[in-house]
Amino acid sequence: MKKFLFLVMVAGFISWDKPTSKKPVTLFETSNGTQSASYHEGIQWWKSLASSTENVQIAEFGMTDAGYPLHVITLSKEGYSFDKIKDSHKTIILINNAIHPGEPDGVDASMMLFRDVAFGNKRVLDSCIVVCIPYYNIGGALNRNSHSRANQDGPEEYGFRGNAQNLDLNRDFVKCDSRNAESFAKLLQVIDPDMYIETHVSNGADYQYTMTYLATQPDKLGYSMGTYLRSTLIPEMNLKMTAKNQTMVPYVNHWGGPLKD
């Protein structure tokens, strides 16, 4: 299996009706940024997008603790479904959203990203294929409220951190106590991505910067991938974000030796 490049950044097989040229708009956009799509609204939106362009495919894969299957969205120039991309020569990027559904920015951002590429700059698909899990923690996404993240800057409603078993799925990738994690592990073997992006949001903390990131330790990644991460990818990301007046900084981390009293 390929070595993964893990980044945490804040920021389908089914044949539907004949594709149309209508460009779907997200709830985030129509609400002027005050609302985020619920699970059922989001899945319906993804189905609408897939019916609008041959570049987007939607499929189901595996089961979750909530009794709903994971959905997998694939964006490619060839219109591939996710099970056909493993042997592609292109870079495969996997985005995982709503592992903590109270942090929904990635849910809405992925919708707009896939749509804007499919209806706009398809040149990026010359070198990559993007796969997205729109809602990983479906149980938490269904458990919506407006008060469990009081200091967070929107939206009006959002999901809950725990899943249908009240597990923190961000701590379950190894032990696999959840059906979500079991399905995710199998999906990784099918896709074999080169890059993994997991979307999170700070819980109302007052950071000076809108965007923060946490990357795999280059030394643990090792070899050419570690060198690429340290010397090329991270500097290039920071440079291009700064050029867009969206300067990023590393997420809260411990630097240096042991803390002293």
Descriptive overview:
Helices cover 29% and strands 17% of the residues. The chain contains 7 helices and 8 strands; from the N terminus they run βααβββαβααββααβ. The protein has helices at residues 27-30, 39-52, 105-118, 138-142, 179-191, 218-221, 223-243; strands spanning 5-9, 56-63, 69-75, 91-96, 128-133, 195-199, 211-215, 248-250. An 8-stranded mixed β-sheet has the order 2-3-5-4-6-1-7-8. It is globular and about 55 Å long.
Ends distance: 44 Å
The structural class is alpha/beta
CATH architecture of the largest domain: 3-Layer(aba) Sandwich
Order of helices and strands: EHHEEEHEHHEEHHE
Q: What gyration radius follows from the Cα positions, in whole Å?
A: 18 Å
The percent of residues in helical segments reads: 25-40%
Report the count of strand segments. 8
CATH topology of the largest domain: Aminopeptidase
Q: What is the mean predicted local confidence, pLDDT?
A: 90
Give the low-pLDDT segments. 1-19
Order of strands, main sheet, comes to: 2-3-5-4-6-1-7-8
Count of the domains:
2
What keywords describe this structure?
29% helix; 17% strand; 261 residues; 8-stranded mixed β-sheet; Aminopeptidase; 7 helices; alpha/beta; 2 domains; single chain
Architecture blueprint of SSEs:
Blueprint: E1 5-9, H1 27-30, H2 39-52, E2 56-63, E3 69-75, E4 91-96, H3 105-118, E5 128-133, H4 138-142, H5 179-191, E6 195-199, E7 211-215, H6 218-221, H7 223-243, E8 248-250
Parallel strand pairs: 1-6, 4-5, 4-6, 7-8
Antiparallel strand pairs: 1-7, 2-3, 3-5
